[in-house]
Write a structure and sequence with these properties.
The protein is built from 14 helices and 13 strands. The chain is of the alpha/beta class. It has two domains: about 190 residues, Rossmann fold; about 110 residues, Magnesium chelatase subunit I, C-Terminal domain (Helicase, Ruva Protein, domain 3, Orthogonal Bundle), CATH 1.10.8.80. It has a five-stranded parallel β-sheet. Strands 2-3 form a two-stranded antiparallel ribbon. A two-stranded antiparallel ribbon has the order 5-6. A hairpin with a 6-residue loop joins strand 2 and strand 3. Helix 11 crosses helix 12 and helix 12 packs antiparallel against helix 14. It binds adenosine-5'-triphosphate and magnesium ion. The site of adenosine-5'-triphosphate (ATP) has 19 residues, from helix 3, helix 9 and helix 11.
Length: about 325
């Protein structure tokens, strides 16, 4: 690890455009990158954790390396390696494996027989590890040395290979993890907590930027629809709340409904028709309510009440 900060300073000088709002989270991520500290972005589903981590790929500078033969400085493409956390991910995927053909050719303990895994491919760049807490404890353990020493030792091999990367992970603490992250593992990270969009304006901007556009959606009706989802997000009746994906889903499906009805603009019926399909599995009622009604009934009922209160009419306006 050098101390000139050139690479890190260049990364943090760029703007993260894919993620709307979340200024504090962006600042924290940059602050960690500047010091080459490993981080895990923590938060509920669908709030842009993956989008944020992935956006770093686009702001990485090319790396300058000296070609050992010609001694000339060459520019290399930025290194950004993505690993999807899952219970099936093996230590071999991360560390590497012995190639039997090469082992026969070069000898089983030769460095040439070894096919490096993702940790070594990330050397000199970023290792983006999505949904870390879906991995087994065995896998977490296989990462420990690389995270601390920026090197990894391979089984019976007598070599340390460079695995110098900045680790950016994501995790959703509500996910029933296969194994909770161990203390030794967590001690190697800084955690960055991310929350749903702070304001309705931010959420409207996300929907406008990321959602597909097929028909018109009256501004007032859209604002009320998103407000409805945000109300559910803070509702005490629920133990699982709808994410930004739900807002995007309603935005898109309401337009489809208008189109299928041969209209150029969304009306309140289009929104209502999309509600059950988009929302009911994305929420979970608290046990006290679960036995009284289903999630679909709850969504339909809440939306009717909301539409009534807000005096949403067919045209979309009050
Ligand atoms: N602040 C935001 N800026 C831009 N897009 C956002 C934002 N929040 C959510 N989104 C959009 O919401 C969708 C879900 O985002 P993403 O996949 O990054 O969420 P996540 O937090 O990784 O969710 P999960 O925990 O379920 O993996 C994407 O389409 C993303 O573009
Ligand atoms: Mg994600």
């Amino acid at each position: 690890m050098n101390n000139d900060f050139a690479y890190e300073k260049e990364v943090v000088s760029k703007k993260i455009e894919e993620v709307i709002g979340q200024e504090d989270v962006k600042k924290q991520l940059k602050s960690a990158i500047l010091m080459r500290r490993h981080v895990i972005i923590v938060g509920p589903p669908g709030i842009g954790k993956t989008t944020l981590a992935r956006s770093i790929a686009r702001i990485l500078p090319k790396r300058k390396k000296v070609n050992e033969e010609t001694k000339e400085e060459v520019e290399k493409e930025p290194v950004f390696v993505r690993v999807q956390g899952s219970p099936d991910l093996t230590a071999e995927d991360l560390i590497g494996d012995i190639d039997p053909v090469k082992a026969l050719k070069y000898g089983p303990l030769s460095k040439e027989a070894f096919t490096p895994g993702k940790l070594f491919k990330a050397d000199g760049g970023i290792l983006f590890f999505d949904e870390v807490n879906r991995c087994s404890e065995k896998l977490q353990n296989s990462l420990l040395q690389a995270l601390e020493e920026r090197k990894a030792t391979i089984g019976s091999y007598d070599v340390d290979l460079d695995a110098d990367f900045i680790f950016i992970g994501t995790m959703n603490p509500e996910e029933a993890a296969t194994e909770p992250l161990s203390d030794v593992f967590l001690d190697r990270f800084d955690l960055i907590y991310m929350k749903p969009p702070a304001s309705i304006d931010e959420e409207l901007e996300i929907v406008d930027l990321k959602g597909r556009k097929l028909t018109g959606f009256p501004e007032d009706l859209l604002a009320k629809t998103i407000a409805f989802i945000r109300n559910l997000r803070s509702s005490k009746d629920l133990e699982k709340h709808p994410s930004v994906r739900a807002s995007l889903g309603i935005y898109e499906r309401a337009q489809s409904n208008a189109y299928l009805d041969k209209r150029k603009e969304v009306n309140v019926n289009d929104v209502q028709e999309a509600m059950v399909s988009v929302l009911s599995h994305r929420i979970r009622l608290k046990p006290s309510l679960k036995y009284l009604k289903s999630a679909s009934e709850y969504v339909a009922e809440q939306f009717s009440e909301f539409a009534e209160d807000e005096k949403i009419t067919k045209g979309g306006g009050p």
